[in-house]
Amino acid sequence: MRRSAKDKSEARYLALVDEAALDVLRYLQRRMPTEAADLLNDALLVAWQKRARLPENVIDARMWLFGIARNLLRNGVRTEIRRSALNETLRAELTVTTAPPADDGAAIRDLIERLPPDVAEVITLVHWEGFSLADIARLQSVPSATVRGRYRRGKELLLSATSAARK
């Protein structure tokens, strides 16, 4: 019984995986430890898809698999560099746009921080984020009456705190 070319390429592929997969994984782990398993998976998938081009020679086949892994690694590094640069840009933008103003608002922010957490959250969601009380009730999965009570309590506490500060 004669083996087909497809059977031979599959057998060579499986032999390559047995021979080199662990070494490729170690190679990837030294370079991108957290992504190594995913990169190995991707390399084996690419090798499977291109198994018709798998070199006959065992050493050449091993180098071919390392070449695939290396290309994926380089793509991963480039992606990580782009992601990191984007994160830095976003972080800088958020710092600029969300930095609290250097004014008397610090006193109000301090008063809000002293409120009970559930009350402070309602106050900030209304006045800083622009949510309605009904929106907050949906967001927090609580009855509207609960949110209205927290908002009223927060306003009262802030009013008495600001009145006491003026005296």
TrEMBL record:
Domain of life of the native organism: Bacteria
RNA polymerase sigma-70 region domain boundaries: 23-80
Keyword Transcription applies: yes
Pfam families reported for this sequence: Sigma70_r2 (PF04542), Sigma70_r4_2 (PF08281)
Keyword terms of this UniProt record: DNA-binding, Sigma factor, Transcription, Transcription regulation
Domain RNA polymerase sigma factor 70 region 4 type: 107-158
Similarity section: Belongs to the sigma-70 factor family. ECF subfamily.
Name of the protein: RNA polymerase sigma factor (Sigma-70 family)
